[in-house]
Specification:
With about 325 residues, this protein is α/β, with parallel strands linked by helices. The chain has a domain at about 1-175 and about 210-240 and about 280-295: 3-Layer(aba) Sandwich (Rossmann fold), CATH 3.40.50.720. The chain has helices spanning about 10-20, 35-45, 80-85, 85-105, 145-160, 185-195, 215-225, 245-255, 295-315, and strands at about 1-5, 25-30, 50-55, 70, 110-115, 165-170, 175, 200-205, 210, 210, 230-235, 245, 260-265, 275-280. Helix 1 (about 10-20) packs across helix 7 (about 215-225) and helix 4 (about 85-105) packs parallel to helix 5. The chain is globular.
């Protein structure tokens, strides 16, 4: 199966590429702005394979045959999302239109768009569900809305192309052992505190998250591309169970010696707004995806991988 991957330099894309490249079932065509750098990355990490092909976006041609296109183009780091501002809207639309143009010429292909839970435009007082209703002050669009609106705009366009096979995967919280611990994600700041043996400072406000890790994310993708279903829909990422901030801090303290302090003011960055229950209870059964990890078990395994790899580098 020929799979084209747009935005193949992103963390979540690289994790998936590493897993898919181990299977003889898939030949991967990796599109990025700097294909030579991406090739060097895989060579340096001993992941070079005859099943990996590296191209620039200018090489993405409608006459080439891809059974599946996966679009990872976007901004993951909250600090970067805040800095790029409304540009994220136009970047998302440009590469999404590239994929849609291909699909119109090749309607039997499947398009997987990596969306976000932010597309719900919810305050997440409650978890996302079938009954969720988006909240937007149309007369006062603020910088925190651009990322959400970019994803929502793409999803609305996709539903309008009901004759095409398009699946939007809404990622709420993703954690990998290869996450940049200098990014402004909550979990990255926690892992940085573990590594540097510093005290992680957070507020007493309880929040709940559902983290999907590389294993289950790849299982979800594989279940979709192997389903051979021509369907136009959205799918929310989920693990076996979400985790609260207090439970996560307690367990990471026990297992990895995390030191943390509870203070009244929040020290994190909320580039897309505060979300108390940033996860979904919406379940689609079209693809028979069954998660293998809970949020907590997945986090613990990925932290163990990170610390092991970090210790190897220092020895």
């Amino acid at each position: 199966m020929n799979i084209a991957i747009l935005g193949s330099t992103s963390l979540i894309a690289r994790d998936l590429i590493e897993i898919l490249s181990k299977s003889e079932d898939y030949i991967l065509y990796l599109f990025s702005r700097r294909p030579s750098e991406l090739r060097d990355y895989y060579l340096e990490n001993n992941l070079d394979s005859k099943r990996l092909n590296f191209y620039s976006y200018n090489d993405f041609k409608e006459q080439d045959i891809y059974e599946v296109i996966i679009n990872f183009v976007g901004v993951g780091d909250p600090a970067k999302a805040k800095k790029i501002g409304n540009e994220i809207f136009f970047i998302t639309e440009f590469y999404d239109n590239m994929a849609l143009t291909y699909l119109h010429k090749n309607p039997t292909s499947q398009y997987i768009f990596i969306s976000s839970g932010a597309a719900y435009l919810s305050n997440f007082i409650e978890p996302a569900s079938e009954k969720s209703i988006g909240l937007i002050d149309i007369n006062n669009i603020n910088p925190q809305n651009w990322y959400s609106l970019a994803k929502l705009n793409a999803e609305v366009k996709h539903r309008a192309h009901s004759n095409l096979s398009i699946i939007d995967i809404r990622v709420f919280n993703y954690f990998s052992s290869k996450l940049d611990i200098n990014s402004r994600f909550l979990i990255a700041e926690i892992v940085r505190s573990i590594k540097e043996k510093t005290t992680f400072v957070t507020s007493s406000e309880e929040i709940y998250r559902d983290f999907i890790t590389p294993l289950d994310f790849s299982n979800l993708i594989i279940s979709i591309i192997n389903s051979n279903k021509k369907i136009n829909t959205s799918v929310d990422c989920f693990s076996k169970s979400p985790v609260s901030k207090s439970e996560m801090l307690s367990e990471l303290s026990k297992k990895f010696g995390l030191s943390y302090s509870i203070e009244d003011n929040e020290h994190g960055l909320n580039a897309t707004g505060t979300k108390t229950n940033y996860f979904s209870i919406l379940r689609r059964d079209e693809f028979n995806y069954i998660p293998q990890e809970s949020s907590l078990s997945g986090i613990i395994k990925e932290v163990e991988k990170y610390l092991f790899r970090n210790n190897e580098k220092n020895n």
